[in-house]
Write a structure and sequence with these properties.
The protein is of the alpha/beta class. The chain is built from six helices and twelve strands. Helix 1 packs across helix 2.
Length: 212
């Protein structure tokens, strides 16, 4: 099985493919230019693995939260491929991609933080249950000054370093989002998450969360 992964929730887009036990990934050379760069990096990726679109069994896509434009462009591109190739889309939460990258110890409460704009942050909390990470609170937006983090939490952050410094959290994983994480989650959760009902798929935009 070959799963293509697309990550456009951040400024630098990336694409990855998981083929059985092997994986490959490419990043855009430019930032904040998803609409132009995405088709090229996907083509570059397929050339590197000597594959074509017809070889792909499904497309995993980061659904957000994240960049408004990036998410819209990425999902539109993936919907077009899904229709043209008659293959399913595997929607992946950006929060869960973050957890997949870090792979924190089960048993800890996990707080995921994504910088939105200005001093606004997306946050969500997860707990481990039956060897799985389960969302424990409704994702929302908070201001930096209103962020509450407990000492025993495993905290994962995505965003500029200057914002990370303002958070003043000593034990925090500051990571880069990658399409490889999206592709691997899509591969491992293909049967559970795959869908061809693309009309109901929409990015997790800022407006869909409660503002404190």
């Amino acid at each position: 099985m070959k799963i293509l992964g697309i990550e456009t929730s951040v400024k630098q887009s990336s694409a990855a493919i998981v083929i059985e036990n092997n994986s490959y990934e490419v990043f855009s050379d430019t930032k904040e230019d998803t609409s132009k760069s995405l088709p090229f990096i996907v083509k570059d990726l397929l050339n590197k693995v000597q594959s074509s679109f017809n070889d792909i069994d499904g497309i995993a896509i980061s659904m957000g939260p994240g960049s408004f434009t990036g998410l819209r462009v990425g999902l539109s591109y993936v919907k077009g491929l899904s229709l043209a190739l008659d293959i399913p889309i595997i929607p992946i939460s950006t929060f869960e991609s973050m957890i997949n990258i870090v792979k924190p110890n089960l048993g800890k409460v996990i707080q995921t933080i994504i910088h939105s704009h200005g001093t606004a942050l997306y946050i969500a909390e997860y707990i481990s249950r039956n060897q799985l990470y389960v969302l424990d609170s409704v994702p929302k937006i908070v201001d930096i000054d209103n962020l509450e983090s407990k000492k025993d939490m495993s905290i994962i952050y995505v965003g500029p370093d200057k914002i990370a410094d303002q958070l003043n959290i000593t034990e925090m994983e500051n990571i880069q989002l990658t399409a490889l994480s999206i592709a691997s989650l899509g591969y491992n959760n293909y049967d559970f998450l795959k869908t061809k009902s693309i009309d109901n798929l929409a990015p997790n935009y800022i407006g869909s969360f409660k503002l404190d």
